[in-house]
Amino acid sequence: MIALAVSISAALSAMPCVGAAGTIVGTASVIDADTIEIHGTRIRLNAIDAIESRQRCTLPSGRRWNCGKDAAFALADWIGRSPVDCDVVDIDRYGRSVAKCRLRGEDIGEWLVSHGWAVAYRRYGLDYVGAEDRARAAGRGIWASEFVMPWDWRKGVR
């Protein structure tokens, strides 16, 4: 009986904590700058689009840099091992949960866009347009360079 209780307890701890309103809570792994995973559940951050992991940006000096990888690394460094909580708002065509997520009470999408690691994805919401405008004006992150919008890059515009 004790072995069964330990097995059930281990299985439950490996699962994300999902609340009644579609909330997922747990330690997140960064897949790329707009997708995280919590205990095997892929979560696409709502209303933002980040530079793709293989995408490069060009600084005014002409030097190219791995802005997509840097965006993912910046998010991973910021999250660390702290718990993340996500309110699921939809499921995308790839079966990922689409959610608004928070770290220590701060909106992760807002953080990414305001630091210049992602752009407001106006097609899916206007939540982060102001943060994008401020990041662009300050030349933060990708806004310090030339880049192709991620949705165009995915279509083959390089």
UniProtKB/TrEMBL annotation:
- Gene3D superfamilies per the record? 2.40.50.90
Q: Which stretch is the leader sequence?
A: 1-20
Q: Which UniProt keywords apply?
A: Signal
SUPFAM superfamilies assigned: Staphylococcal nuclease (SSF50199)
Note the coiled coil stretches, chain numbering: none
State the name under which the record lists this protein: Thermonuclease family protein
Please name the source species: Gemmobacter lutimaris
- The TNase-like domain, residue ranges: 30-145
PANTHER family cross-referenced by the UniProt entry: BLR1266 PROTEIN (PTHR12302:SF26), EBNA2 BINDING PROTEIN P100 (PTHR12302)
